[in-house]
Amino acid sequence: MKYYCNPLNVSYRYQFNQDPRKGGALQICREAADPSMICFEGRYYIFASMTLGVWVSDDLVNWENRRLPEGLPFYDYAPDVRVMGGYVYFCASSRDYNCDRWRTKDILNGPYEKIEGSFPFWDPNLFIDDDGRVYFYWGCSNATPIWGVELDPATMQPAGEKKAVIDGHPYEIGYERIGEDNSTLPASEETIEAMYQAFVKRQGVPEEYIPAEVRPLIRGMFSNRPYIEGAWMDKHCGKYYLQYAAPGTQYNTYSDGVYVGESPLGPFRLAENNPYSHKPGGFLPGAGHGSTMQDEQGNWWHTATMRISVNHDFERRVGLWPAGFDADGELYCNQRYGDWPMTLSGFRQDPWRDPAWMLLSAHKTAAASSFMLGHEADKAVEENVQTWWRAASADRDEWLCADLGKVFDVHAVQVNFADDKIDIPCPGEIRPGSQARYIEERDLVTRWKLEASTDGENWFVVEDKTGVATDLSHDLVVREEGFAARFLKLSNMEVPYGQNPCISGLRIFGLGGGEKPAAPAFTAKRTGDLDMEVAIAEQADALGYNILFGSAPEKLYHSYMVFAPGSRRVGALIKDREYYVRVDAFNENGITEGICVKLS
């Protein structure tokens, strides 16, 4: 059996951002986002933003970073890839110039044949229908829609007029509202217009001098409207599933929704199951702007962007989850335990299978050789990627130790390194543009040693990576046979740029020998068109809870993982639709399903 744990275990390259929105100050973080995943000649490829290349895998578990030939637009966002006629077609985003395409029969080595573009676009997606006709979708804005157009497959130029295919509706679609937990409604049209007119007046330029295509973009600055972006099209059983991301990459509710149509350019209706990719809780939230595809065995998978957004709004990672279509043709994605270790057998498998091992480390005791104020040892076990332990020095004798409280059967450990306000000169030349930056080209290293003990005195080595040449900031150690341990200690750490090591998650998984929690007591009520409140009663035997909801008791496709009882507002509902809710409890020993109720 093979195992993986989100975010994907790859090398995430450092970005040296000179963001004009931040006054041009240099901001440094790792980033990869907007993944486009394809299967080509028996291998899997993920093209993600700001990676200088592509990730390659033979099994969807073990990924290798590979650089691509020079000349491709590595500094443009949201790369898109599709297979057509034995070629892989590649492009990326720019609002500043006409976007070219490239095609190749050899992804890793090239050559890449350039196809001249004729217009700028952002967040592109190419789709080839069964009849060979080609369609193209693009858009990333809080003021303009996602567009679609048919292309001439010989020239890849538009073969007709573009058509608006998806727009935002944040007053009717809860998950499109911006803010943490979809907390902010957009401004009214009257307010937006007043702010727009005030802006124009301040500029001292008559409105007629402002280009017509620029005016909605200016209004968008004052709207608090969601970004509608990241299109991806799949066809299933004769229907067209146009997927899109909202409301913004920096929120825990970054999600992928889906519209369904009878033809590639619509008209489209909002699918019953929405957002189909939605992970607002857990260690690493966010599941927006991605792609959906079938593997060699016929299993569906969805890959998307996960949110950190501490050092920079675009500090992001990539996740992968099982997906599929139900008997009614609804597209779904299983993210109930979406950042826990998952199994992949290589055969047709149940996308709703429970995790093999339970989380053992959440909110347990942790100690360290030293810490910086505000970054104490317990930050590494609180299941929040936005907080971390930071050692007081970069010395190799610094250590971090988690105490599980008793001996458990441990099967996996995920070691998550964080970055904390890195302050070093940029090692290369900043590329100018709206997203001015330099992407680290050197191959860096992240090293450490993991030891375990049952008594805190006698230790054995679980994994020694003190001599590796890899840079895996979310590394996963798996011991399928398991080992007995109460204490897990991380030591001998070396991280890029000689920084003090920071750990956002020393996450330990395995099996307890006790009882599963009791079924949780809860209430769920609708508090508005787009919101519900779920109140979970406290119980001593639960480590956390999964709030599940959906359109029917057998279609609880949405989930929100929380680690404390009490009231939780969920703001992802759609106006005038019915919902059913269930709360499951989990602890170190397993998962107990609650009772499903109709939302009132």
Major sheet details: 8 strands, antiparallel
Estimate what percentage of residues fall within beta strands: 35-45%
Gross CATH architecture of the largest domain: 5 Propeller
- According to CATH, what is the class of the largest domain? Mainly Beta
Helix content: under 10%
The CATH topology of the largest domain comes to Tachylectin-2, Chain A
Give the number of helices. Answer: 2
The secondary structure category is mainly beta
Q: In CATH, what is the homologous superfamily of the largest domain?
A: Glycosyl hydrolase domain, family 43
Describe this structure in words.
Strands 26, 27, 28, 29, 31, 32, 33 and 34 form an eight-stranded antiparallel β-sheet that branches. A five-stranded antiparallel β-sheet has the order 14-17-18-19-20, with no helix packed on it. With 600 residues, the protein is mainly beta. 4% of the residues lie in helices and 41% in strands. The protein folds into three domains: 2-186 and 224-344, Glycosyl hydrolase domain, family 43 (Tachylectin-2, Chain A); 358-511, Jelly Rolls (Sandwich); 522-598, Immunoglobulin-like. The chain is built from two helices and 42 strands.
In summary, what is this structure?
The protein has 600 residues and is mainly beta. The protein is 4% helix and 41% strand.
